[in-house]
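Reply to dn_fold:

You asked what the input looked like. This is it:
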Amino acid sequence: MRIQQVFNSRFLVARAPRNDSALAVPKRRQIVIDFSQDYFSLFGLLARYHCDARKLDAAYRKLQGEVHPDRFAASGEAEKRLALQSSARVNEAYRVLRDPVERALYLLSLHGIQAMSETDTALPLDFLEYQLERREAIEAAAQSHDARSLNALLTDVREESGELEHMLGDELDGARALEAARMTVRKLKFLSRLAADIDAAVAEVED
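and this is what came back:
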């Protein structure tokens, strides 16, 4: 063994060199996620209706990679539990911000507005009458196995949904017309359900 000589004020002391690598303590993985942050802040995004989907996707992948429970398989129970909670939080935030309806509802909730209250689901009568006509057209096309008509109806609904999304951007990001946005997102929610029903009808007809 190589001997080092260490000088102090009275005499020389011989000792073996310290093996720092042997004394090193493995670093514990740390989960850094602030549960008090809103979903936008969690991903480092501005709280806006029109958000960059690519930035959201990239931020999600990065954060989920950092908190994924598999990274903490060898950690203690507390760390494992926190990893599960963190991963669930990140997944829920991503799900909400990725969806045009849920993102608008969440933004309104940040302003203290519950747009889909169980006791207040009113929609304009003319809007509902038009959707009833659409429903009748969907049922007729489905019964006659008319996939072409169903797809045309689906395109029409999606185009109207796109217009409503544009309106929400103006109302939430621009004018801050929150009460108007409250009604707009209700319409968008209705149309999203209608589009899902048409999709199901098309799949059944084409099966």
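Confidence is low (pLDDT under 50) at residues 1-26.
Hope that clears it up.
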